[in-house]
Amino acid sequence: MQPDLELVAVRRDESFKVWSHGYPYRTVRWHFHPEYEIHLIVATTGKMFVGDHISSYTPGNLVLMGPNLPHNWVSDVPEGETIAQRNLVVQFGQEFVSSCVDSFPEWRQVEALLADSRRGVSFGAQTSEAVKPLFLELLSARGLRRLVLFMSMLEMLMNAEDREALASPAYQADSTGFASTRINHALSYIGKNLANDLRESDLAQLAGQSVSAFSRYFRRHTGLPFVQYVNRMRINLACQLLTDGELSVTDICFKAGFNNLSNFNRQFLAVKGMAPSKFRRYQQLNDASRDASEQAAARGVGIDDAPAIVLAPGLPRPAAAAYPPT
After folding, report:
1. Does residue 235 contact residue 271 with C-beta atoms inside 8 Å?
2. Domains of the chain with CATH codes
3. Are 87 and 21 within 8 A, CB to CB?
4. Which residue(s) pair with 87 in the sheet?
5. CA–CA distances in Å: residue 310 to residues 177, 298, 315, 323
6. Could you tell me which of 23, 8, 97 has the C-alpha nearest to residue 326?
7. Helix, strand, or coil here: 14?
8. Sign of CA dihedral 294, 315, 324, 267
9. Which of 19, 56, 134, 146 has fewest C-beta within 10 Å?
10. Could you say which residues of the chain have pLDDT below 70?
11. Strands 31-32, 17-23: parallel, antiparallel or unpaired by DSSP?
12. In what order do the strands lie in the sheet with 121-123?
C-alpha cells in the first residue's frame, strides 16, 4: 500500500514543530513526510509500522524517524472510544539540520544518529523515561527554552545505549514513487497554491478522477472534506502571516487565499476560537512580555523587581492555554 504524504507546517518564527494528538486522528494512517520525526507514545498499546518493520508497542514507545520513512501506529482501542492524547511529536526539516551543521561544529556528533534514523531508531524504557519530561515541557515552551529542550533531547538520543534500528538494512524509502500517487500530487499542489483559487473539480482532473470519486478518495486519506482541508491549511498560513505586524488583517485574508474578509473571520474563529485581530494581539502580548524580560535583564533587574506588563485597553489577560496551537 502506497503511503500518503503529510504536509508538515513549521511556523516561520520557529525551527521545528512540536505537537500532540489523540486517537483516532486524521494522521493515523500509513504516511511519510520529508521531515525528521521524534515520536513518543504516552497512551494505548497496538502495532507499530516503520518501513518494513512491524512490532507491538506500549506506552513509552520512543522512535526517531528519518526523512520520507513511511510509518504508522495503530492503537488497540474499541470502536467508538477516543483517546485525548496518545502521542507527542517533534518534526524538523533538513534545512534546519543543514543550518545547524553550518553554524555549530558540535552538531556533527548528531550526524551518525540522523543517518541511522533513515531506518527508524527505537529507544528503550530508560531513555524514554528521561526524554518524556522534556517532551511534555516542550509542548508549551517558548523562545530559547525550546532550543535548550530540543538539544537536550537530541543529546539523550545520541548517547542512548538502549537503541536499535527498525527497518531492515535493505529497505529503501522511495519518496519519488510515493509522491507520484494521485492524492499526494493533489496535496502537494494545494500546499503550493493556497493563495490561488482552488476548486475540487480542478484537483479531481489533476488526479485523473471524477469529482465524486476524488471527493471520497480525498476524505478517506485526509480525514477532512476538500473545502475544510483547504480552509485549515489557509488558516495555518494566516497564523504565520499574523506574526508580521506590517500586514493588515485584510491583506492577510487575501494572501492566505480567502476571497472576502467576513468569510476569513468566520473560518478563523471556527478553527482558532478567536478572531484574527485577537490572535494578533495575543501574539503581540507574548512579544511584549519577551521584550520586557530582555530589557529587565539588560538593566540587571531581578525577576521580582521587573516591571509588570501593561495590557492594551480592552484586552483581556489570557490564561496560558489561550495561546492557540498551530
Report:
1. yes
2. 4-165 (2.60.120.10)
3. yes
4. 21, 41
5. 55, 19, 10, 18
6. 8
7. coil
8. negative
9. 56
10. 1, 175-176, 179-180, 285-326
11. unpaired
12. 17-23, 83-92, 36-41, 62-65, 121-123, 163-165
Predicted local confidence at residue 48, as pLDDT = 93
Give the CA dihedral 26, 32, 34, 35, nearest 10 degrees. Answer: 60
What pLDDT is stored for residue 305 in this prediction?
40
Could you tell me if 110 and 64 are in contact, meaning their C-beta atoms sit under 8 angstroms apart? no
Full DSSP string of 42-94: -S--EEEEETTEEEEE-TT-EEEE-TT--EEEEE---TT--EEEEEEEEEE-H
- The DSSP call for residue 301 is -
**C-alpha grid cell, residue 54:** 512491524
User: Is 31 strand, coil or helix?
Assistant: strand
Q: What gap in Å lies between CA 124 and CA 164, rounded to an integer? A: 9
The 3 state secondary structure assigned to 220-268 is: HHHCCCHHHHHHHHHHHHHHHHHCCCCCCHHHHHHHCCCCCHHHHHHHH
pLDDT at 224: 82
Q: Which of 160, 161, 141, 136 is nearest to 40 (CA)?
A: 136
DSSP per-residue string spanning 120-149: -EEE-HHHHHHHHHHHHHHTT--THHHHHH
pLDDT tens readout for residues 119-134:
999 999 999 999 999 9
Residue type, 54: I
Q: pTM of the predicted model, to two decimals?
A: 0.69
- Three-state DSSP class for residue 114: helix
- Specify whether the CB–CB gap between 17 and 10 falls below 8 A: yes
Query: What pLDDT score does 91 carry?
Result: 98
Residues in the chain: 326
Q: Dihedral (C-alpha) 107, 139, 142, 32: value to the nearest 10 degrees?
A: 50
- Checking 250-257 for CB contacts under 8 A at 24+ apart, the result is 252/276, 254/195, 255/195, 256/194, 256/195, 257/194, 257/195, 257/196, 257/197, 257/198, 257/230
